[in-house]
Design goal:
Order of helices and strands: HHHHHHHHHHHHHHHHHHHH
Strand content: under 5%
Number of helices: 20
Helix content: over 70%
Number of strands: 0
Radius of gyration: 23 Å
Structural class: mainly alpha
Largest sheet: none
């Protein structure tokens, strides 16, 4: 879903569009204009130029715009932590400049990064700080409230956004909105309405927009699954997988494994869980990885294949170690290990941070 002012260019490049942006374009550094010109075809090169710019002593407007563009590129690449850092730096400069319009735009885009990272409450709080007459704020507040389980409030925001989007006639916005309203109805167990909105989104979706079609098909799959129509759900989810970003395949295979398990097709379920494990590296699906490995371990144990049990058990132990390492480093950076972790976890955190070769999970 786009965000205000919300064409692809306006989202990423404030200085090229809108009346308030004209002066920024005149003042901006030539290298920044070069970064703007190449960000779609060569995003890495654009980021490299921005990084070289931000190390120089430049005016705050150029820095604010540069970090905004960097945040946008990184978010598109699903590099959420660096995107968050870039948007925060941009917001800092816009705040110092007192530019309310760009404070609002940047705040909303930072909230979108939190949404993509599953930090629903933080996202909703930021959406509340964004100002202006902006229908996308209603949409974004609605989708964050769905994740927080506040469905009545979510409905009010989404239907308000629907009225505005219908008047604008923007099909791309309507597709995303229909997807969220479909989720809303599914969560309230109004499955007929959920299907109606999700199929309406598919009817409007462009044949080349794999991302949006994949989301709609995935949510339709979940809608049928919750009604006990597991085979239909499986069929739709397998179609959705052909359109997914490879980074999401670990989660996709995990869910397909669950569907096969519901159908009693144990061998197919295990193959799917193994595929999930193979695609796990570089993702943040720790719980799904652990669950996939546990299903595999249980299966091999029940069939007496104890070498495989040992192999996957060790993999599960390594994952637990990695998660603890990440958590420990984050907490240690905040100088809050003591008092936040239990005694056993605290000892492990210290061992890990001292780079011990062996970490025992207690």
């Amino acid at each position: 879903m786009k965000t205000a002012p919300n064409t692809l260019i306006i989202l990423s490049i404030a200085i090229l569009i809108a009346g308030c942006a004209t002066e920024l374009q005149k003042k901006s550094h030539p290298l920044y204009q070069q970064a703007v010109g190449m960000y779609q075809e060569n995003p890495e090169g654009s980021i490299a130029l921005i990084d070289s710019l931000t190390k120089a002593t430049l005016d705050e407007e150029t820095l604010a715009s540069a970090f905004y563009l960097k945040g946008y590129i990184l978010k598109k690449q699903r590099n959420l932590h660096p995107a968050q850092a870039a948007y925060k730096k941009s917001l800092k400069y816009w705040t110092e400049l007192g530019n309310d319009q760009w404070i609002s735009f940047t705040t909303e885009n930072l909230a979108n990064v939190y949404m993509d990272g599953g930090m629903w409450q933080e996202a909703y709080n930021l959406y509340g700080r964004a100002k202006g007459d902006n229908p996308y704020l209603d949409y974004n507040k609605g989708r964050s409230l769905i994740q927080l389980g506040k469905l009545k409030e979510a409905q009010e925001h989404l239907f308000k956004a629907e009225f505005t989007f219908r008047e604008s006639g923007n099909d791309e916005d309507m597709i995303d909105l229909y997807n969220e309203i479909g989720i809303l109805y599914r969560n309230t167990e109004l499955y007929d309405k959920a299907e109606e909105y999700l199929y309406a989104g598919l009817a409007k979706s462009d044949a080349n927009d794999n991302y949006k079609k994949g989301k709609l098909l995935s949510n339709l799959s979940n809608t049928f699954y919750e009604q006990g129509k597991i085979e239909k759900g499986l069929l739709l989810y397998k179609e959705a997988m052909t359109l997914m970003n490879p980074k999401n395949l670990a989660l996709a295979y995990y869910r397909v494994g669950d569907l096969y398990r519901e159908l009693g097709q144990q061998d197919s379920a295990i193959l799917s869980y193994q595929a999930a494990v193979m695609h796990y590296e570089g993702t943040h699906y720790h719980d799904e990885y652990a669950s996939s490995v546990q299903h595999i371990v249980d299966y091999y144990q029940s069939t007496g294949q104890y070498d495989s049990v040992t192999h996957y058990s060790l993999a599960l132990n390594r994952e637990a170690t990695d998660v603890l390492k990440f958590r420990s480093e984050m907490v240690m950076e905040l100088e809050q290990v003591r008092g936040l972790l239990g005694d056993a976890e605290q000892r492990n955190a210290i061992l890990i941070l001292e780079h011990r070769e062996t970490v025992k999970i207690i």
